[in-house]
Amino acid sequence: MPMRLVILSDTHIPRRARDLPEQVWRAVDGADVVIHAGDWCDLASLEALDERARRLIAVHGNNDGPQLRERLPEVARATLDGVRLAVVHETGQARGRDERCAARFPDADVLVFGHSHIPWDSTASTGLRLLNPGSPTDRRRQPQHTYMTAVVESGALTGVELHPVRPEPSSSGTPPR
Predict the structure, then answer these.
(1) Is the keyword Metal-binding assigned to this protein (predicted)?
(2) Domains of the chain: which residue ranges?
(3) Which residues pair with 122 in a beta bridge?
């Protein structure tokens, strides 16, 4: 059976948003595995996602304090239906990232990372797939808030998709500006 993934990073709650957008929560509810590449900013957001996700694979980021660092590793690893996954928050500058990460994570098929808030999907010469979902709550200079989904099936990562977070209607029924 296919394994559905939701890939998140840089949620920055409550600094940049009070909660994850409802669109992201719906994706989490439909996922088999949720991956979060750090910069949660509060323990409550980790606990909420951990409670709602069927399985959570997560790391801490540079904006995460002692409570999150006690609960989460700097690097997480998991094998999902034969796909060797590594998760880390920071990977350094964009120039040379693919090969630098391939050398750092030679035993991984997929590396999920965050920090830049810039969506990224590339493949190193070794075959390592690098994914950064951007941020669903803090787009910085990006045109939109984003997250990713993917599927693992028969030992392969497929269907990687970057999703824009769509504005939610306000309680008055009028979309926010």
Answers:
(1) yes
(2) 3-164
(3) 130
Q: Give the C-alpha separation, 23 to 63, whole Å.
A: 24
CB atoms within 10 A of CB 121: 14
| pTM exceeds 0.90, yes or no | yes
d(CA 67, CA 71): 7
Q: How far apart are the C-alpha atoms of 143 and 137, rounded to whole Å?
A: 12
Which two structure tokens, joined as six digits, stand for 173?
Answer: 């029924």
Give the pLDDT confidence score for residue 170 in this predicted structure: 57
32-60 pLDDT, tens digit each: 999 999 999 999 999 999 999 999 999 99
The reported pLDDT for the residue numbered 167 is: 81
For residue 3, give the amino acid letter. M
CB atoms within 10 A of CB 139: 18
- Residue 168, pLDDT score: 75
The amino acid sitting at 54 is R
Q: Which CATH superfamily is domain 3-164 in?
A: Metallo-dependent phosphatases (3.60.21.10)
Structure tokens given for 15: 């600094």
The DSSP bridge pattern shows strands 83-88 and 110-112 to be parallel
- The residues with which 112 forms a beta bridge, in sequence order, are 87, 131
> Interhelix angle for 22-30 vs 43-52, to 10°?
40
Separation CA 134–CA 117 (nearest Å):
4
